[in-house]
## 1
Amino acid sequence: MKAVGLTRYLPIDDPASLEDVELPVPQPEPNDLLVRVEAVAVNPVDAKVRAPKPDVEATPRVLGWDVAGVVVATGTEVEGFAVGDAVYYAGDITRPGGNSQYARVDARIAARKPASLDFAEAAALPLTALTAYEALFERLQLDLGGGHAGQTLLVIGGAGGVGSLGIQFARRAGLTVIATASRPETTAWVKELGADHVVDHRQPLRPQIEALGLQYVDWIADFADTDPYWEQMVDLVRPQGRIVTIVDNTRPLATALAKAKSIGHVWEFMFTRARFRTPDMAEQGRILAEVAGWIDDGSLRHTLKTRLTPIDAANLREAHRRLESGTAIGKIALSGWSA
């Protein structure tokens, strides 16, 4: 089968950073679906895994943890799926990704794709939807049913893939959303998604929050870098408030004020359930099914902004370049394979 992989970890401008390769079609294990891949999307995790380092792979490593496709075979223990089902999923970072014509995924972390979306639109959803959902409703423990309605949530990185869905989920739960954006086009995007207020993350945040008549915000979801915003977040969140982050810190985080305010800080990593085979792995399949329902009833919009075709090394390198520029809005997806 056709696939895009790497054997060396190189800068994305090097043609060898991602290459077209031929690999055997994988066979499903007992809990797996074998999926014919119709579309994939890129995420910061792809660029992070591919980042330059001296390692060399003996066989090509396949990235890509956002997939939409069609089930062509099922493992012996799979329930609830059949050959021919259109599905979408984010997958498991400990297994090969989906940048290949056929890919395996544990059926418990997959769901039927939204019927109203094409494959590229669906592929743009899973990883960011799961990250945003888990961050808000599991890590921050916000009440999806409206129990925290009217409280304030600051979303840092509002125009990115995770932020674009986080804004919509928070508005669904009735929160007042303050999103960060710094350019006219990103400001317009987060407003379209339902942000009540927009502040510029390139400028100090406290004066902008105070200009909204607020001393503190109740909750903060940092979907951008942790280091540059940590001290501002600790200052801005209310005493006994909560912060969720998704990007590793690269230096020690000052915690004195956080302790004084009894702030809760929690990490969100979408791959935790699959990586550690947690007893509640199937929750990710349930979340994706719920998100698909929201898409199909029109209460949630997809976040695909850029399409590339076909799925090949040249287009995946281009997608990585755009992602690494730090200026991408929404998601980038690729669909179709060349003949």
## 2
Amino acid sequence: MTGEDEDIKKPKTLCGIRHVQTIMMFFALVIAYGMRVNMSMAIVVMTDNTLENSFDWSMQTQSVILSSFFWGYIILQIPAGEMAAKYGGMILVTTAIAINAVVSLTVPFAAYYGGWQLVCACRVVQGLAQGFVVPSIYNLIGKWTPVDEKSRTGAMINSGSQLGNAIQLVISGFIADAWGWEAIFYVNGAIGAVWVVVYCVVGSDSPQKSKLISAEERLYIQTSLGQLGEPKKFKTPWMAIWTSVPFISLIVLHCSQNWGYWTLMTEMPSYMKKVLGVDIKANGVMSALPYLAVYILSFPFGYMCDYLPKKKYLSVTATRKLSNSIGFFGPAIALIGLSYVPAGNVTLAVVLLTIVVGLNVGHMTGLMLVHLDMAPNYVGTLLGITNMAANIISIIAPLVAGVVLKDETDPDEWRKVFYIASAVYVIGNTFYLIFGTSERQKWNEPSEETDNGTQVKSADKIV
């Protein structure tokens, strides 16, 4: 049973408990991604030798510190998805933000008393904890979001990551100027602690377990998702998952998105400074513009991707593929255009960069929601698999760029980097257009064994 099968009466309230969960998940990503990038801003001040108590860390040491977060982040992606399915997303995402908040508060002490090695250890711990965040959040989306609200809810929650980046880039400089670099970590930690307290009060693992939700809203959500009765936990069908061609195409798609996106995020500041003469890192607002573009565009994209299937203009599969195509082919074209911007043309460079990054919003209402479409029973596990693979790619892509770039001031060598990223965008999305789907997979509803040994189909039970 889905929202397309029968007329489901929506609750009259404009802000239900499901919307409260959406807001809390949105801020969870704002906080998590803010903590993820705060070191990249703080380390500039921490190593400024014109200031007192600065750290004499080489560029190599700084690179190790900045990359250490991802050492931990990659490791727990798949286990996180399995644990979210077993224990529920709420306890995991709450624990993850709590750990990040505590560690953030301790980073200044680690730097002063343990040096860069202890700072790295702190970042590894934060990365390990954040490995639970995205799979857990998608587990919660799968339980809390009615079918006809899935795209805009997913887009809004995902946009929190971009807004978290943007806010951190804009305010870190002001915080450091006013109170010192240490305050960047104290503010992040304090905000994370407040979120944990609020979420423990208003959050819940599912509509069935919420003490705040009305009976009307609970019935609406459960009916839409086919969740009537207690949700069941199923054994993960690993063989079916790893032999599913649509899922393999989703892995390819997620990896290609991360290749293009992280090539932009890691290499673009150097390109704009060395080739175009624009020091984008020196301007927090300019740095934040691309992230703000993704955040703003997430709202029309979310509504569009709910509206088209609801009105039956396009199927869910066609809608996801349209969104992906905008989010992959668009940046591929704009990236090539960016590589030919004349030196010194700041306005055109920033506009194209904002377009390139902004159009990545298509993956939020495309590939990120396909996991939910294909197998809501195992969404955390699926997302853990694709996110782990994609984040390995996010490490490899900048290394490939470093091999290609012999001279960072040569526009021709930079064009090679951009052409490679564009090709990956195009190839990845084309592969998905051919083999991908948003149709519910048969292995999402595995057979259960009854007491007498007979097999029954667990159709329409979504957890």
## 3
Amino acid sequence: MEEKEINYARLKQGGFLRQRQKEDFFSIRLRIVGGQLTSDQLRSLANAADKYGKGEIHITSRQGAEISFVELEDADAMLNELESANVHQGTCGPRVRGVVACQGDRVCTHGLIDALGIARKIDEKYFASELPSKFKFAVTGCPSSCMKPQENDFGIMGGLEPEWIDDKCTRCGLCETTCPVDAIKIENDTLYFDEEKCNLCGDCVFVCPTSAWIEVKSGYTIWVGGKVGRHPELAIKLIDIVDEKTLFEIIEKTLDFYRENAPAGERFRDTLKRVGLEKYKADVLE
């Protein structure tokens, strides 16, 4: 019987990664937004790994999961079982990859945004969208940058702009002690606030016992053009503190810009360098 030809490019689009073993084994990537799973989903993953693989699950660097040593003839059955448990197929190749996120203000005391909620919205709208090359989103709840937005094509960071009210301040010094970037100094009963140093973490607002520090606005700071790999580069800050509507407008325009200006295989950062950051800004920050 003639051996069936396998379309490996198509398989890769669905998150199938060929293994180095001579047998036709695949490591199958699964779509897990922000690394968040229910206990039922975890049990379904364990069952699938036992039944179709070698009982092993690899947690990827982007909060996903891969089940290895799956034979191609078993892949459909495994994926159908996982789909019924709300665990979905992943992707590889030149398209929007899985979105990584911290837990944001759902759990973390420093969280300024619902990072997981934003990640799920991005995933729902853009996951596996075709692009010139791979494109990675990261959402982090605050300037502690646990999810490393500066290392991703499009990074989103929660931020809070503070304001100081003199007549409410007792000069207790808690804000000065707490500020992680030394933007606040108290000398001779006078408070100095260096807005250029401020990283928009909001710690001064949260620690102040007299509400002398208040929130002016909060939202999303955007970083673009980061990447790691063999030629790593940190992302460039695009804009401080926009609202959710503006955030998604910028995402939409960014992906359109990338599609329109990049040849196949060119990473987004390289497109920005070739076409020009100012051209990009003009297109997306109208």
